[in-house]
Amino acid sequence: MSKKMKYGGIIPALYACYGRDGEVSEERTRSFMRHLLKKGIDGIYVGGSSGECIYQSVEERKKTIQCVMEEAGGQIPVIVHVACNNTKDSRSLAAYAQEAGADAIAAIPPIYFKLPEHAVAAYWNSISDAAPDTDFIIYNIPQLAGTALTQSLLRTMLQNKRVIGVKNSSMPVQDIQVQKMIGGDDFIVFNGVDEQFISGRVIGADGGIGGTYAVMPELFLTMDRLIQDGDLRTALKIQMDIDHIIDMMCGCHGNLYAVMKEILRRREDMDIGGVREPLPQIIKQDTEMIDRCVTAIEEALSRYCRED
Fold first, then answer.
1. CA distance 247 to 13
2. In whole angstroms, what is the distance from residue 247 CA to residue 133 CA?
3. DSSP percent split of the chain into helix, strand, coil, nearest 5
4. Which of 35, 208, 280, 305 could form a disulfide with 191 if both were Cys (CB 3.0 to 4.6 A apart)?
5. What's the CATH code, domain 3-229?
6. CA dihedral sign of residues 168, 41, 4, 98
């Protein structure tokens, strides 16, 4: 199977799953994975922004990796985000992900200190060296990480033969096109901005990795199928509905992930806890907006995803 076929399609980012004590819950992580597998997802992305990685310890992240790998059982490709804000811990996670059987690892650049490009490349390559038999994916999210994947940095990283692609979450859709041009036909670029999924796919993205996919996977799976079938008119309608839902979810007091977890609890009876501080939890005043989100998702599903 080619890399494009292996990693294409809809790859939700797994949400951090906590128990009532606020600690990472093995039981809830496994339950959530089984739930997503039943939805027909094409892959899973573990330990990224949606996994609240910067607020978790290395051991907690390893616990999640183990649960995901055992539940996935080779049914879908697993991409594990392993970046920590130091090289030692990142390498430890990378090695663990490879040992657990992950198909690929991914990493953002180091955050806080503004590093020169050669230092960012050295960081990524050192992480990759710790998992020498595993594909490596660059995670480009400059609006949060503070460092952008420039053309020169990408060309430097392509000297590492394990680098197979980019998860591109920068706001300019054209970045996807540029990365495809530099990387070549076999280079994989994932659309990372959920509100621009159709734009990213049309301009060249091979699939998508997204933080809102897991709360409404059917909509993204249907949109992706329509894009492949050439029905861009209907795909655009779904994209517009998704964007409206995301806008409402972001309009709550609680953090986006706290809101989505509450939607999952209400729609799917899937309780995976709240979010970890300092991320804000939902409050009583969010109830009306969350109800509207649930209704909007259900209405979109009835329009596009449910056959008579």
1. 19
2. 40
3. 55, 10, 35
4. 208
5. 3.20.20.70
6. positive
Active site annotation includes 167: yes
Residues 6+ apart with CB under 8 A from 292: 248
The overall average pLDDT reported for the chain is 97
pLDDT of res. 3: 85
Burial of residue 101 (number of CB atoms within 10 Å: 0-12, 13-18, 19+): middle
Residue 116 has pLDDT above 50, yes or no: yes
Active-site choice (167, 213, 257, 261):
167
Strand-pair partners of 10: 208
**Two tokens, residue 285:** 């005043």
73 SS3 class = coil
Query: What CA–CA distance (Å, rounded) separates 130 from 58?
Result: 15
pLDDT at site 307: 59
82: three-class secondary structure by DSSP: coil
Q: Please, which residues have CB within 8 angstroms of residue 26's CB and are 6 or more apart in sequence?
A: 63, 67
* C-alpha 22: how far from chain center: 22
Q: What is the pLDDT of residues 148-199, one digit of tens each?
A: 999 999 999 999 999 999 999 999 999 999 999 999 989 999 999 999 999 9
Q: For 230-285, what is each residue's pLDDT tens digit?
A: 999 999 999 999 999 999 999 999 999 999 999 999 999 999 999 999 999 999 99
Q: What is the band of 308 on the pLDDT scale with cuts at 50, 70, 90? A: very low
Q: Which amino acid is at 283?
A: I
Catalytic residue among 96, 139, 213, 257: 139
Q: Which residues, at least 6 apart from 273, have a Cβ–Cβ distance to it below 8 Å?
A: 16, 17, 18, 19, 20, 22, 25, 28, 261
The pLDDT > 70 percentage for the chain reads 99
* Spans of all domains in the chain: 3-229
Helix (H, G, I), strand (E, B) or coil at 189: strand
Residue 139 annotated as catalytic = yes
